[in-house]
Design brief:
The chain has a domain at 5-25 and 65-78 and 141-329: 3-Layer(aba) Sandwich (UDP-N-acetylmuramoyl-L-alanine:D-glutamate ligase), CATH 3.40.1190. The protein contains ten helices and 15 strands. The protein has helices spanning 5-14, 60-69, 85-96, 142-154, 170-183, 209-216, 228-239, 278-291, 296-310, 321-329, and strands at 19-24, 26-39, 46-59, 74-78, 81-82, 99-101, 106-107, 113-120, 123-130, 157-161, 186-190, 204-205, 243-247, 253-257, 260-265. The strands form three sheets. It has a nine-stranded mixed sheet, with helices on both faces. A four-stranded mixed sheet has the order 3-2-8-9.
């Protein structure tokens, strides 16, 4: 189910006039690429001969990067990161993509969250995580919080990107919701239900299949038909999101509004190599489209199309406005 070329062009053109703010858990993704042709004599593990390293913005930083590549006029980012080597690499990536990070969120005592993936050919061999204990990434207070709320007041769209590290809590969501109710900004969230936060009245939520089932409190096997109507109703009764877009991988998406299933959207992906970061693309594209005033169904089709491009790439990935238009034109 493709969006029209006219709709996509309108979104990408109007995006240049909009200010977007991303709040959440910032990470740096490190990909170590190599070949494995023998087993180590020290242990029954493959020996990886490295031929390339690359670094990509991850977590909330990847959401901001997606928005930048979709032509947003101004992008700000609030999330904890350190002044360590990972932080320096991440700051350079953000600067290169004209993403502003509030200075209060860069601190000496914090380790930038780093996820290193060892890749052999196109397969992930293992992942190595480095981060501080959760208290270091806690909800901001003082000047950091006041600066963040001022950024919320200036934004046309606010995305809460929760990766469960502690940056976001219910009180913050409520305060941001109060501000966006006054300003008219779009407020969206990619939730992590394991945190059991109490929140309500967001403009849009974008959980995946397992997250939506957990939010709804419904048990469902991975091979069982997805109970869309029941999930949509349960999440509405608990969180009252104006709109809900549930991503179902190869089964596409389910779009709900005020507790009712509005439309089922088939995936546009021709092939899937890696779903890493696909959720970031969905919430970025959907929020940006809603911010420029595109109707909900058309905005969801745009997000679905963007995600279909990203999952055909290996690793945490983004896409460009040129890529979107050329695939529609071709």
């Amino acid at each position: 189910m493709l969006p029209t070329l006219k709709i996509c062009s309108e979104i990408l053109n109007q995006a240049t006039k909009k200010k977007l703010l991303v709040i959440g858990d910032i990470m740096l993704d490190h990909y170590v690429w190599g070949d494995a042709t023998r087993i180590s004599p020290e242990a029954p593990v493959p020996v990886v001969s490295v031929f390339k390293d690359n670094y990509i913005a991850g977590g909330a930083a990847n959401v901001a990067l997606n928005i930048a590549h979709l032509n947003a006029g101004r992008i700000s980012l609030c999330g904890w990161m350190g002044r360590d080597d990972g932080g320096k690499i991440l700051l350079e990536l953000l600067k290169k993509n004209r993403i502003e990070i509030l200075s209060d969120f860069v601190a000496e005592e914090i380790a930038t969250i780093l996820k290193a993936r060892v890749m052999v050919q196109t397969q992930q061999l293992c992942r190595i995580d480095r981060e501080n204990p959760p208290k270091h990434y806690a909800v901001p207070e003082g000047s950091a919080r006041s600066g963040m709320m001022e950024a919320v007041r200036q934004a046309d769209g606010v995305i809460l990107s929760d990766y469960g590290k502690g940056m976001i809590d219910a009180s913050m969501i409520a305060e941001i919701r109060s501000i966006t109710n006054e300003t008219g900004a779009v407020l969206s969230m990619d939730p992590k239900p394991r945190r059991k936060m109490v929140f309500s009245d967001l403009d849009i939520m974008t959980p995946n299949r397992s997250e939506s089932l957990e939010l709804a409190g419904i048990q469902c096997g991975s091979h069982d038909p997805f109970p869309a109507e029941a999930v949509c109703k349960a999440i509405w009764e608990k969180h009252h999101p104006r709109s809900l877009l549930i991503t179902l991988g190869a089964e596409g998406m389910v779009l709900c509004e005020e507790g009712r299933v509005l439309e089922r959207i088939s995936t546009t992906a021709k092939e899937v190599f890696d779903v890493s970061g696909a959720g970031d693309t969905v919430i970025s594209a959907l929020t940006l489209a809603l911010t420029v005033g595109i109707p909900l169904v058309d905005a969801a089709k745009f997000a679905n199309f963007c995600a279909g491009i990203v999952v055909a790439k290996i690793g945490t990935a983004t896409l460009s406005s040129e890529e979107i238009l050329s695939k529609l034109e071709g």
